């Protein structure tokens, strides 16, 4: 890697020759790989070595995982840079909270936030890029998350829908990517001071909308994967000018550097920010700060103010069945659903007659009233149970991953050869007394549905995920 001359000059001036030299040397070293183990699922099934802990992050370990292993396919592990684990870790999320991950793809931070919620409350995971939002949805689905609303919208489209609504908001903002130099040639190639300044302006635009969605007294975690003060301490200083206070963070024993007041507005509370340098040996580069919005939660009754807006449907679309408001399944349809899903253990009780909605024959358990988010592009609202066909019901892949959180009896556990064939999309012959829809696992880790008849396991693994 050829580090840009302008970058070297800038950080030599900021850090001094000795520390800057350590940074430049570290950027020439291989990047560190790590993964998190999903606490929503049974971690005892994971056979990866769990002895090289990432300091400060529960259930996180150094090492490399394969996207073909049952651990990944079942959503039992997630590959993530160690330093990138800390923004979600620094949030104060508790079960039952309303949480927004505003710049969420590919989903590492969203999956960590979902773990903190433990299936309670609401996670809104947003990504403006449609292609990246699809990856975000797939990762949350694999993780077994059933209480997330996955959206693809610009922040200014979300803020009128969620005024002062969230208890915590995480903004891992798009940045100049200096902390990605070891992993991305493009980050090096396109670095410039001009781009740093453009990113800082964009970060302010994003945060301007984010703070509108945060309750008074709520927590904002702001993070970047870059080192430049313009995108870090200066942005936090800008938030302080709006009344935000910087919270102390507990990173005892974690290799990091405190924020630099002299790189911002000079306020001593900037030392409460955290910067993770490559030379400190934790992982790649990261900056994170926890802030509190002025006011108290009692200043606004967010639930009462949450707008419920009915989306108008054009006549031509109504005739074709498009754009209609979701409705409850009929009694007959509920019967098909219950018959197909009989015998499975549920992580959380669902009232099939009243809790479920259907839209274009897709049956789902909403994380939020669909009419409340009309006009926002939704990729997933809560838990999709499956699809109604002619006098029958087919369960979804998301439901299989969600059911994988708890012990199940209706499971076919494939050996390694059968597992590989199933991932390819093949049907598999098995010895089992079961029939009908069953969960499919390998080494006890559930990753799909299948349909069993006379020992023949019909493949229901999604075509887009087959390997």
Automatic annotation (TrEMBL):
Regions of compositional bias (Basic residues) in chain numbering: 308-322
PANTHER family, per the entry: 28S RRNA (CYTOSINE(4447)-C(5))-METHYLTRANSFERASE-RELATED, NOP2 YEAST -RELATED NOL1/NOP2/FMU SUN DOMAIN-CONTAINING
GO biological process terms, semicolon-separated: RNA methylation
One Gene Ontology term of the molecular function aspect: RNA methyltransferase activity
Catalytic center residues: 225 (nucleophile)
SUPFAM superfamilies: S-adenosyl-L-methionine-dependent methyltransferases (SSF53335)
Binding residues annotated for S-adenosyl-L-methionine, in chain numbering: 103-109, 127, 172
Organism: Lactobacillus equicursoris DSM 19284 = JCM 14600 = CIP 110162
Protein name: Methyltransferase
Domain SAM-dependent MTase RsmB/NOP-type: 11-294
Region annotation (Disordered) ranges: 297-331
Recorded family membership: Belongs to the class I-like SAM-binding methyltransferase superfamily. RsmB/NOP family.
A Pfam family of this chain: Methyltranf_PUA
Top-level lineage group: Bacteria
Protein keywords: Cytoplasm, Methyltransferase, RNA-binding, S-adenosyl-L-methionine, Transferase
